[in-house]
Amino acid sequence: MIASTVALLLVSAGFTTYELVTFRQTMSSDLSTLAEIIGNQSTAALTYENQDDAKEILGALSAKKHVVAAALYDKNGQLLASYSSGHETKPVFPKKPELDALRFENDGLVLFHQIRLGDQGDNLVGSIYLKYDLRELHDRFVRYAVMILLFMLASLVVTLFLSGSLQRIISRPIFHLASTAKAVSGEKNYSLRATKEGNDELGQLIDGFNEMLGQIQQRDSELQQAHDKLELRVEQRTQDLRAEIAERKRTEATLKQQFLRISLLNQITQAISDRQDTDSILHVVLRQLEDHMGFDLGLVALFDSKVQTLNVVALRAKNSLLATQLDLQEGSVLSLMETGFQLCEKGQTVYCADTLKETALLTEKLAVTGWRSAVGVPLMVEGKLFGVLISARLKPDDFSSGDCEFLRMLSEHVALAAHQARLHQDLENAYHELRHTQAAVLQQERLKALGQMASGIAHDVNNALSPVVGFSDLILKGDYGLNSAGKKYLKYISTAGEDIAHIVARLREFYRTREDDESLQPLNLNTLAEQVVDMTRPRWRDIPQSNGLTIEVRTELAPDMPKLAGIESEIREALTNLVLNAVDAMPNGGKITLCTRVLRQEDGNKRPRQVLVEITDTGMGMNEETRKRCLEPFFSTKGKRGTGLGLAMVYGVMERHEGNIEIQSELGKGTTFRLIFPVRAKLCEQEEPEERPAAIEPMKILCIDDEPLLRELIKQMLERDGHLVAVCDGGQSGLDEFRIARERGNAFDLVITDLGMPYLDGRQVAKMLKQESPATPVILLTGWGAFMKEDGSTHANVDGILSKPPRSRELRETLNRFRSARNGANQSLTEISAARVN
């Protein structure tokens, strides 16, 4: 009945809603039509602004009882006439008309309509305002509600009547069937049956219910018989199960104990797997045994197979007082024979049920202290004893076979973990050592690559330096009327050229150590520091001042500076590089300090042990990464302005002088480079006296070189010593000159030829000269001279090698050597001829 009532309500609500919406649309349409009619009648009154006609037209609205207010407005929006039905005591008319609009408000329907004339309706003459009340809509809504209510009451009466008539036909058999089912369920009496009153659907349902009760009754009888038999079998089975349960409880107790031990083993294994050092692994194991196994004492000692001793590395006692009385601590060393656990070396577990009955030194100590039972298990690695795990308890014979077996299993894991931890530590140490070694090897390989690269540029650099060094040397040793300042500056030019030549000559030497037979000269760091300050003055004073910057250079030189054994050009070059780097690190100006100090022995003699020079600037400084890499070849922070070779050269100089470099730097706080040199007890070489040319026998020499300045330099140097010199600008012209001189009977005593020449190089010239005159010495003059001497790559037809730039002393010594050889050969020939005559 509820469903039908709801359905009726929904249908009524839908019908009512539809009627109300339709009625609102009808009201809107009627009001719009009424506005059109009044507007058409009011055009004349609005055009001529006739209020009387306008009021008369509006007065006709009294026939429409639901129109409560109306108004006409002229084309300027001024109120011309109004109408009120009287239902509203004080109607309020809008001050200005709105555009065409139709809307429902709370108390009515409002319409604004513009009145226009003309065919196109483009002449506005006024506007009309109408207000329609909603009483009719409300009245209709009330009528619909009353109708629906009456309809619902009538439906309810009819429904009650029909349901009462049908209940006797349908409900009574159902109630009877339900009461029968309830009786069967409550009394468990499956012999009851429901009464059938007809052959309709309810009758068929009752027949099925009665048939189901018959089947249930039969099955219940069968189940009762089976139940009786089952009780007998259950009773017999219960007795068997009680016996099995008793046995199972004993087994479960054993399994539970084994499970707990396995869990503890897993827990210990997991705890030690996160550790990489042996000590922490062993301490974790002892703590776990104390907490979970109730051991009163635990210690682990590592075995030394060479001396047969056990070194205690981990010890843990529950009672600290007893541990003190035991007189045993970590670091103690025990002889394996004195412990009573000698069989552990063979991989066997040793159990002492009562330490009072044992005679070994360690077990006697345990007995005296109070630990009455002990067990020792070996820690085996690859079949060899790695250590021994010893556990003890206060009560005698307090270790079960399960405890011993657990310790045995645990020992395998502990031995493996401790051994791996030791291997990890050894591997880590080896890795750190290998990393340092690799860094050193990498540094040497970089320097080696730098040295090998130098051979490619040595020839051109030495060719360019040869006139600078040679002619400055000739001017210094000649009488050209130079004043002291001119000689000083010329000496600087010569020194700088010699330093550059020396740099090129030893670039490849970065990867090797200094040979024992290499000559070192005594020098003074103070003198070198002053020279470097003077030679770099344009870089730190003149150039910055032209840019409006000021760089101050100070020197703090130790007054008692001892002599240092070294190569002057190398150390001067290193200091120069450091000073120039300091200038580059101060783009806004600053201060550079050169300081020398003496480090003396700590004994009573206070002899000089080391000397050092510090170059400190107030520049930008370096971060830690740059400080670590600044000595690497080709590493530079100057961009295109830097080559990355300056500090690498400094490193090579210090390596060859067996010195050290210390670098202190911080961003924004400047940098300090400290070069530390050892002081030798005996200097390797005394200062050389000033070179004075000795009287020598003149020779006729042919010089072949494609560089005009070098030809002129060699000619001037040889003619200065009294030799007769002829020069040629190429290999072929030199051969032609040599042949012409031989044909004229005025052969050359010696030939000096350049190596790298177009068309016919120095080796080919030497080969042809030796074929025509094997006795004539041939000297190869080349910019690769130093490298060829080092590598032993001299050609078979070359008697000697001179390096560029040529030095007067080296050239003179070479000529003297060949002159002595020639004089010796001539003397031998004279003696042979005299012997033949006799």
Give the number of DSSP strands: 23
Question: Which regions contain 5 or more consecutive residues with pLDDT less than 50?
Answer: 510-514, 684-693, 789-793, 828-838
- Distance N terminus to C terminus? 170 Å
Helix content: 40-55%
| Number of alpha- plus pi-helical segments | 21
Strand content: 15-25%
The description of the largest β-sheet is: 6 strands, antiparallel
Q: What is the SS-derived class? A: alpha+beta
Radius of gyration: 62 Å
What would the principal axes of the Cα set say about the shape? flat
Q: Describe the strand arrangement of the main beta sheet, using strand numbers.
A: 8-7-6-11-10-9
Q: What is the mean predicted local confidence, pLDDT?
A: 79
Characterization of the model:
There is one protein chain. The chain is of the alpha+beta class and 838 residues long. The protein is 53% helix and 18% strand. It has 21 helices and 23 strands. A 6-stranded antiparallel sheet has the order 8-7-6-11-10-9, with helices on both faces. Strands 2-1-5-4-3 form a 5-stranded antiparallel sheet. Strand 10 (373-381) and strand 11 (384-393) form a beta hairpin. Helix 6 (278-293) packs antiparallel against helix 10 (401-477). It is flat and about 165 Å long. The relative contact order is 0.04. The model is unreliable at 510-514, 684-693, 789-793 and 828-838 (pLDDT under 50).
